[in-house]
Design a protein that fits this description.
- By secondary structure, the protein is an alpha+beta fold.
- It folds into two domains: 152 residues, 2-Layer Sandwich (Fructose-1,6-Bisphosphatase, Chain A, domain 1); 116 residues, D-Maltodextrin-Binding Protein, domain 2 (3-Layer(aba) Sandwich), CATH 3.40.190.80.
- It contains eight helices and 14 strands.
- The protein has a seven-stranded mixed sheet. It has a five-stranded mixed sheet with strand order 11-10-12-14-13, sandwiched between helices. A two-stranded antiparallel sheet has the order 1-2.
- A hairpin with a 2-residue loop joins strand 5 and strand 6.
- Helix 1 runs antiparallel to helix 2.
Length: 288
Amino acid sequence: MTDLPSLTNARERADFAQIALLVAEEAAVLVGSGFRSRPAITKKGQHDLVTEYDRASEQLLVQRLGSLSPGLPVVGEEQTSARDVSGRPGLVWYVDPIDGTTNFVHGHPFWCVAVGLMEDDRPVAGAVVAPMIGVRWTAWVSPARLDGAAPTIPGVALRNGKPCTVSATALLSESLVATGFPLVRDREPDSNFASFMAVKRAAQAVRRCGSAAMDLSMVADGTYEGYWERSLHSWDMAAACAVVLAAGGTITSLDGGAPDYHTGYVAASNGRIHADLLAAIHRDAAKG
């Protein structure tokens, strides 16, 4: 890997965000050509699907990122790229060639291509492109934000080229919240079912749309006030978590500590409802 300096200035971060958007758009065109074609599937697990479009999209992303940012490792879901390099210092790309493959296979429009850059295991820039609903999110995070400070500008987050920010809603009871369920759903709490019921009782409503990257991005643009999920992967989160942080949102582990973007037990919110959301997630469903 070529040694590159830390991304300490905004111009560098903005440039990487534009690279992420460019290659995500290209991959989305490729994947979109197969939408509603009922593509052949391979099962990686009972609920874990992959198609030729997943593999082709990842190959495109790896090749283009290799050309535009030579020397940086690229980690992807289908493993046509490097294996996960969690804990490795420096800059690493994480790509999800189709986030929402099950939706894509069935002709449901909620799927996206996500391309995120992490530095020292923290999201710094990324893009999420959801072509079937005509929405693109892109962002870069302020260096001060990652150092734990609260800068006046947490970064730049854009939805279809216009600035976006998290919502101002302060009550969980008035909040629209999103979640998802893991591929293996045979035990609690990992199945997320009890937490779903508890949060559903506490929030105004809960949605489950099938794409973690889109759900997180919709926290960033104020559509949702919060989101939580268990057993995600770095490629599910890297791009969209950069959008959340740049839009002024809060991301923690489910116990309220620092998030681990490689184990995927995370909660994201507008910050105002965060404590109440975490409390509801852990509340006994019978008492919710």
